[in-house]
Amino acid sequence: MDHGEKRYLWTALGRGLKGSCPRCGRASLFRAYLKQVDSCPECHEDWSVIRSDDAAPWLTILIVGHLMAPIMISMSKSGRFSPLEMSAILIPVLIGLSLLILPRAKAVFMAAIWALRAQSS
User: Fold this and answer.
1) Strand, coil or helix: 115
2) Mean pLDDT score of the chain, rounded to an integer?
3) How far apart are CA 10 and CA 55, in angstroms?
4) CA 111/CA 93 separation, integer angstroms
């Protein structure tokens, strides 16, 4: 790891959004759904020292809530759907969006922490 290298925030965030290593962009940042690799197999950047903790779930809730709230309100006000129908439609969508956004949110926070050199170790 070269501490003197120039780190570009937007490049790192873009790579993180794709789930790639924020440093090189060639390898995956995760070895499982949310389990980050200890180090990049391509550039050997140490990812074990970076922890995003509760930031990713917070961002996921923020995004999903802002996307779904208007839809939920309009469905409720329209009167066309019963509560059971709304639940049958919205619950799978909410779960699917959350599962889709969560690893990307974690990778984006990891990329930001790396690019800004904000890790504690």
Assistant:
1) helix
2) 92
3) 18
4) 27
